């Protein structure tokens, strides 16, 4: 999409107030439990003038304009409200929300904000998960935020693992509860022997540090079979479901469509 940057920036600054920003949710399938155990909340922008604007365009723009904290705060609150509507203690499904580098740079203050939002929605801390990228946790303030979240019992997931600059030392110190393998490691599996070896190694590293491992970008049945055999814990990708609006998510969870797909019944 080739749009004039200045005009789009002006529209983005007002988009949230006009209700143009929404959340879509992509389910994650827990292999051991045999069910969807969490969903990832993803921001979407539909402009009346330009139509659907890619997150790859408007998220970096929001970072540049200093709007990302407002967008992130809104997304967290919206995700908590959605989770509170459907949370079932006997069959819990958590909601994962992405945190930007700017949000994490606020350190313990950000963790306190997350905790307040979860508590105000009447949810246990385990109902919400905060996803952070490798590059976002390189500074001390961001690491303080991660440690503060974990101390409170709020689950932290390291997203896009393998594409950034963090090291195993960060994993050992911060101990996020979940490691998300970037889709770049998954896309050539099982055809590429090198990709298979790397993927198994990352899964083993995650497990050796006591973390659950999620594979993103799962798009084929062969990838599902390989990841199951390699010991991956959770799958996420278009093979299971694309990101969807809240109403469609509710119907998807109610019908057990993904569970039937994974069991071969669909």
List strands and helices in order, with pairings:
Elements: H1 5-15, E1 21-30, E2 35-47, E3 51-53, H2 55-65, H3 68-86, E4 94-98, H4 101-104, H5 108-120, E5 128-133, H6 140-151, E6 155-161, H7 168-174, E7 178-181, H8 183-186, H9 193-208, E8 212-215, H10 221-230, E9 234-235, H11 246-255, H12 257-263
Parallel strand pairs: 2-4, 4-5, 5-6, 6-7, 7-8, 8-9
Antiparallel strand pairs: 1-2, 1-9, 2-3
Could you name the key traits of this structure?
single chain; 266 residues; alpha/beta; TIM Barrel; eight-stranded mixed β-barrel; 12 helices; 47% helix
Shape: globular
Spatially, the strands of the biggest sheet line up as: 1-2-4-5-6-7-8-9
CATH class category: Alpha Beta
Q: What is the β-strand count?
A: 9
Task: Compute the separation of the termini in Å.
Answer: 36 Å
Which regions are unreliable across 5 or more consecutive residues at pLDDT < 50? none
The string of secondary-structure elements, in order, is HEEEHHEHHEHEHEHHEHEHH
Can you tell me the CATH superfamily? EAL domain
Main sheet: strands, sense, barrel:
8 strands, mixed, barrel
Average pLDDT figure:
92
Q: What's the tally of helices?
A: 12
Overall number of domains: 1
Strand content: 15-25%
Broad structural category: alpha/beta
